[in-house]
Amino acid sequence: MFGTKEPIARHTITVLVNNEAGVLARVIGLFSGRGYNIESLTVAEIDASSHTSRITVVTSGTAHVIDQIKAQLARLVPVQKVRDLTVDGPAVERELALVKVRGGGDKRVEALRLSEAFRAHVIDTTHESFVFELTGSPEKLDAFVELMRGLGLVEVARTGVAAITRGPAAL
Amino acid sequence: MADMDMTGAEMVIRALVDQGVEVLFGYPGGAVLPIYDALFNQDKLRHILVRHEQGAAHAAEGYARSSGKPGVLLVTSGPGATNTITGLTDALMDSIPLVCLTGQVATHLIGTDAFQECDTVGITRSCTKHNVLVKDVNDLAQALHEAFYVATHGRPGPVVVDIPKDVQFQIGRYVGPANIAPRSYRPQVKGDLGRIQQAAEMIRDAKRPVIYSGGGVINSGPAASQLLRDLARLTGFPVTSTLMGLGAFPASDSNWLGMLGMHGTYEANMVMHEADLILNIGARFDDRVTGRLDLFAPHAKKIHIDIDPSSINKTVRVDLGIVGDVGHVLEDLIKVWKAKQYRTQTKDLESWWAQIDQWRGRECLRYRASDTIIKPQYALQRLFELTRDRDAVITTEVGQHQMWAAQYLGFEKPNRWLTSGGLGTMGYGLPAAIGAQLAHPGKLVIDVAGEASILMNIQELSTAVQYRLPVKVFILNNQYMGMVRQWQELLHGGRYSESYSEALPDFVKLAEAYHAKGMRATKPQELDDMIIEMISSDQPVIFDCVVDKTENCFPMIPSGKGHHEMILGPEEDPVEISDEGRMMV
Ligand SMILES: Cc1ncc(C[n+]2csc(CCOP(=O)(O)OP(=O)(O)O)c2C)c(N)n1
Ligand SMILES: [Mg+2]
Asked: pLDDT digit string (tens) for A121-162?
């Protein structure tokens, strides 16, 4: 039997799928139906000529659960490939956030100063607000959002993680 | 090639014929009328009109399971589609290849809550292996052929093709089945040779081995059953099997231990508990088999052969997993075994068999006989004796009668035993028998039933009568939902909440009302003659066998216990069931 005290780890799994109706529902339904976690999930077509989409799921579980997730994903009919970037890495992960901050005076100045330190771009501005665009690891985005809380944060939009292995080898 | 242009409805017929389909189970309705119209004009496909779409699904399952070919059903949108859900789920759980065609409202009406619209692909997504809504008539032929490919390749399962009514009317280009395979679905059939070599070594070194085989052997085809027999012969290993695997290994063989698991034999479960090597061939460590996981097979190394990689290490961690079709893997395993001239540990096996014989000596299937009342076990023993030269196909409903049938009917060949294992669907047996009878017109087909289960799809008796299918329904009538009563006795202080079969119909009159034959036996002395009368009838028969109301099904691993903690019979002291055990189903 599988121990219940095994350590839980975060894994980034990439899934190449045929871009057909219902494929995302199938993947999400698998996670909800079998009680697996989804921390983030992104999907977009990456090759229109071959109707291939790439799904990146960040999930967490024991080694056994992660193996099950991969095996269950692999047996879905429209799934072409499943890769665990956390195991097969090293990989780079990036996420994009849009962060709206409202206010004036010192706080406004401080927000702008911090955004430069994080190499965020200002993509919209008014006399009383900024929208910052920031890419980076989820942790970096978390840190930026945390800092903005005290400086007039009013809204956040995040894309979820896209990931790819380092080096010349391709999926 | 103008003859390849046809309506969507005609394409459906053409694709089924090209796929070698002979029988189609169905029920018409608004959203499939064009397909029914196309059926009207042809004579290659035989349509069997069921009386409820659940019946169509189970009949298709029975057809598939008994013939090795995919079962096909055709139903209308909305209620027609939703009525198939139980059958589709049943087929998914038991890995039965089905292709289910559902009508859908016209494409421009989808999403408008149109009359008899339901989100069929949404509803069936989690109870099918795959499903697809076809919105363009030019995609239809490909979708139909792919459905057959997916249903029958890898681990078999049900596939739904949802076809809007306008697509059935439109004209498009038909393509044949050649070379059609979905680009992303390529199940592995050959096992890894290095791993097979490793398996051979583990088999060679085992001192207390057991072969634990499952439905995968039957799904792989008759060759796999033969290879299983060869392997048992070569190694001299004892063989047990799951409920789904019965018949892959002959019950008359001296290496046969009987079924394992919750209502398996004492010897099979003790062998599992004491084994040092378990060779799982096409089974899935189901909870009915393993009992409490932390007590399961504590001394054994485990090898698991399965075509579905997600089955390996799902609930039980194994030492060696081999992904592949059972037939291919066994063939390679036997080749390696012979090429290396391996020998088993003869001395150890001798003492293992001596131990097994002691366990067999407990005679776990003994029961208290009676000459005034029919014991259900006795009824099945007589049924078995009187039909054993007939190579019968047996289906069952779900409950005590199902477990007794598994225990007391011996199966010599695969595809003769059709039962709802994973889902445990009451109402499976009669439609499944109809499907089996259609696949095997000359054969004796018997549904071993309970009086409660049979009422769940009794309407299919009308189907049997219409098509002159002489199926026999052998009801072990204990006037209780016996299996529920047994659990209430064991776990709920004998409070028989709602498990008494109140206001039962007179089954003899019921049969006669359907223009079938009805019979009733109440005494052990009349049983043989009446069974002979039943099996010699060329009509569908309902046999109301009135049995002991209070009999329980033993042996049994109580919930939350291990294989070595079986209760052998009613005379044993009541067991303490832990709170954890009560939680289990
Ligand atoms: C569709 C469905 N509903 C409920 C159950 C739960 N259940 C399992 S066995 C059983 C009783 C079956 O009674 P009967 O057919 O008379 O068989 P017996 O156990 O008496 O042999 C019930 C209600 C089930 N398996 N299937
Ligand atoms: Mg009953």
From this structure: 999 999 999 999 999 999 999 999 999 999 999 999 999 999
Q: What is the pTM of this model?
A: 0.96
* Neighbour-count burial for B94-133, b at 16+ CB within 10 Å, e otherwise: bbbbbbbbbbbbebeeeeeebebbbebbebbbbbbbbbbb
Q: How confident is the model at residue B578 (pLDDT cuts 50, 70, 90)?
A: confident
Alpha carbon distance B150, B166 (integer Å): 25
Query: In this model, does residue B580 exceed pLDDT 90?
Result: no
- CATH number belonging to domain A91-164: 3.30.70.1150
A5 CB within 8 Å of a chain B CB = no
Answer whether A52 touches B (CB < 8 Å).
no
Predicted local confidence at residue A3, as pLDDT: 55
At B575 the pLDDT is 73
Active site residues of B: 53, 115-116, 165, 483
Closest ligand (CA of B482)? 1
pLDDT tens digit sequence for B8-30: 999 999 999 999 999 999 999 99
pLDDT of residue B422: 98
**B364-385: b (≥16 Cβ within 10 Å) or e:** bbebeeeeeebbbbbbbbbbbe
B34 within 8 A of B8, measured Cβ to Cβ: yes
How far does the centroid of ligand 2 lie from the alpha carbon of residue B453, in Å? 8
Whether the CA torsion B464, B465, B468, B473 is positive or negative: it is positive
Q: How wide is the angle at C-alpha B551 spanned by C-alphas B555 and B262, nearest 5°?
A: 25
Q: Which residues pair with A79 in a beta bridge?
A: A17
Mean pLDDT, residues B473-491 taken together: 96
CATH number of the domain at A9-84, out of 3.40.50.2300, 3.30.70.260, 3.40.50.150, 2.130.10.10? 3.30.70.260
How far is B410 from B246, CA to CA, in rounded Å?
Answer: 9
Measured in Å, residue B549 CA sits from the centre of ligand 2 at: 8
User: Closest-lying ligand to the alpha carbon of B376?
Assistant: 1
Distances (CA, A) of A55 to A8, A76, A78: 22, 13, 12
Nearest CA to ligand 1 atom 1: B426
Distances (CA, A) of B478 to A70, B20, B313, B404, B453: 47, 43, 40, 13, 12
- Domains A9-84 and A91-164 belong to one CATH topology: yes
Give the domain ranges of chain A.
9-84, 91-164
Concatenated DSSP letters for B274-289? H-SEEEEES----HHH
